# Entry
Amino acid sequence: MTKKTYIIENIDCANCAANIERKISALPEVEEATLTYATKQLRVAAEDPDLLLEKMTEIASAVEPGVVIRPKDRVSSYNISLHEPHHDHPEECSCENHAHEGCSCNGHEYHDSCCNGEHEHSNIPEQAQAVRRSSKSNRLTDENKKELMNIACGTVLLISAVVLKHFDFSVASVVFFVLSYIVLGKEIVMTAIRNLTHGQVFDENFLMSIATLGAFAIQEYAEGVGVMLFYRIGELFEDIAVERSRSQIMDAVDMRPDVVTRIAADGLHTIPAEEAAAGDIIQIKPGDRIPLDGTIIEGESRLDTSPVTGEPVPVTVACGDSVLSGCINSSGLLKIRVDKVLEESMVTKILDSVENAAANKPQIERFISRFARYYTPIVVLLAAGTAIIPSLITGNWSHWVYTALTFLVISCPCALVLSVPLAFFSGIGAGSKKGILFKGGVSLEAMNNIKTVVMDKTGTITKGNFILQQTVPEKGITSEELLTLCASAESTSTHPIAHSIVSAAKEKGLEITEPKSVEELAGHGVLAVLAQGKVICGNKKLMDQFHIKTPFNAPSYGTEVFVALDGIYIGRLMISDTIKDDARSAVSALQNLGIKTAMLTGDETDSANAVAGETGIEQVYARLLPQDKVTKLAQIRDENGAVMFIGDGINDAPVLAGADVGAAMGSGADAAIEAADVVFMTSSMEAIPESLHIARVSNRISKQNVVFALAVKILVMALGLFGFANMWMAVFADTGVTILCVLNSIRILYKK
# Structure
C-alpha cells in the first residue's frame, strides 16, 4: 500500500472539499483518503495512487468545476522564481537551460560573466524572496480582481434599479434588476446547472440560485439581487480570511530556505537549497537564518532559536557545536558543515509535521462532516414543506415561499465544515510557533481530557547532565587526591557518571593517569589498578561485595560513588543530575490547570523522592523497568482518568505509545519522538502546560463555532416561521456566520 500527497487547487468551498473526500474514499481502489481544506492537500492510500489521479480529478471537478489535483513536490520558491522575469533579457541573450534561447548562463550559476555582462544577477537570495512575496500578494489580487469588478458593477446596477423604482420607472427598474442579477449571479447559476448535470444537487450554488430566482418569481427583485450581492461579498471576504489565516500559519512554520551560500575552492556560490549535499561547507552571515542542519567548523555567534524551539533566550555557539536549521544567526560570521540535506533538516520536519497534523482529523471534525451530509437535505426538505403546506392552508403563497427561500440560504453548512478544522489547524500553528509540534487534531482533542501528566525523570524533569556536586574524603586524604584517584580509575569508562567525574577532574586541572588494568562491572562500578594501588569505584553493592565498610549516610538526591584503595574505604563522591530551572513553575502551572502530576523512573527511590520534593510532583514511582512503567501508567489511568506521558529515552517508547497522549522532548531519542503524539522542540517543561492550554483553547473555540453557527441558523429559521426574518438575515446566518467563525478560529494564533 502506497501513501501519497497531492495538492488540490481551485477549491473554494469547505463543504465541497468534504464531499470530494467522501467520494474519493468510496473508490474501491482507495484504502483511505483525507482532504484537508486548510492546507489544500489530499492524502491518498492505495496500491498506486498516481493511476487514480485522472479519476480523482474527474470526481473533484464534478463536485466543484475547475478543481485541479496535482502531485505534491518539493520545489522551492527559488526554483519557481527562476521562471520569473527577475531581470531583463535582450533579444540576443542566449540563456541555455532557461526559458529563452541563446545566453550562456549554463543554468544560471550566478557568476559575473553571465550573458556577456548585458544583465546582472545581483542579490539573488533577496530577489528570490521578493518574487515569492510579490507572487503571494499578486496571486491574491489576481484571484479577486474579477470578483471585485463584478461586485462593483452589480452594485452600481442595483443602486440604479432602486433609484428608478423610487421614481416609478417600474419597467426600467426591472430591467436594471435583471442586469444586476446577471452580472452578480450568472456564474453561480451556471455552476449550479453544471453541477446538476453531475448529480450535485445540495451545493451552495444550487441553493443560492433557487433562493434568489425564487425571490424574482414572487417579484422581490431587490431582495433577490441584494441577497446575491451580499452572498458574493461574503464569499469574497470568507476566501480572503481563510487564505490569510492559512498563509499566516504556513508562513510561520515554512522556514525552508530558497538558497544557500556554498563555499568552494573557487569562491562562494549561491545555489538552490535542495542542491546542497551533506558535507558541503556553507556560509551564514549575521542576521541570516540557518538554512540546513549542520556543525559549526569556523566562527562563533549567538543564535536566536525561538523560531524552532520558542525559547526567547539566545544561545551561544562556537566551533564544534551542532546547529538546527530555522535558527537565526544574531552576530558572528559562521561556516557550517552540512549534516542533513534539506529534506532531512529540521525546517522541513517542522513543515511536514504541521501539514501531516492537519490531515489527522479529530472526532468532532469527523462528526461535523457526517452531520453536514444530513443537515442540508433536512433543511431543504423543511423549506419545501414550509413553502407548500402552510400556503395550501392559508393561501398566502408569497409569504411562505419567501420564508422557504430564507431556509434555502441558511441550508449550506460551510460555517460548520470550515470553522472546526480551522480551529484545530490554528492550534497546531500556534503550537509550532512556540516549539510545540502536535501530530494531529486528534492529539489536541485528546489533550483536552487529560487528568494526569506523568513524567519520566532523567531528560524530562532533569537536564540529563550528571555533575559532581560534592567530594567527601576520609581523614588522611584530600578532596583533590580522592577525585584524582577516582577519575583515573573511571577514565576509560563511557558511563555518564564516569564522564562527569573525569570532566570535574579536568576542570580542576588534576593529573589523570591511565590505569594499568581496568575491569568494568555493569551496574556496579569499576576495578582499576593504578600506581597508587588497587582502586574500587562504585555503588554500595560493589563495596559490600568486597566486604568494604562504608559509613551510613542519610538519603539524598543524587548518586553516591564510593572509593576504596587497596580494600580500605577512602571517601565518596556525590553525583547528581540537574533539575531544569522551569520544572517547579511548570508543575505548579499544571496543578493550576487542575491536572495531577506523577513521576515514573527507573532511578532509586531516594533520588526520585528528592526530585519530586523539589519540584512539587505529587506521585512518585521509582525503580521501574520499561514494562513496569506501562503497568503503572495503566494503574494511574484507572485511578485518575486520561493520562499524558512525557519522556525522552528509547525505553520510554512503549509507555509513550500506551498513553492517551504521549509527548517527547525534542532532545530525546528518535524512537521516543516517533512514538509520541506531541514533541517539545525546546525540551522545556514550561511547554507542557502551554501545550495543554493551546489544546483547551482549540477545543473550546471549535465548540464555540459549532454552537454559534447552529444557534444563529436555528434562530433565523425560527424567526422566519413567525414572519420576523428576511433573506438579509439568512445571508448573515450563512456567509456572515462563516466569516465570524473563521475569525474566531484564527485568534488562537494571537493568544499569549
In short: The CA atoms of residues 95 and 387 lie 68 Å apart. Residues 74-140 have pLDDT under 50 and may be disordered. The longest strand covers residues 568-576. The chain is about 50% helix and 15% strand.
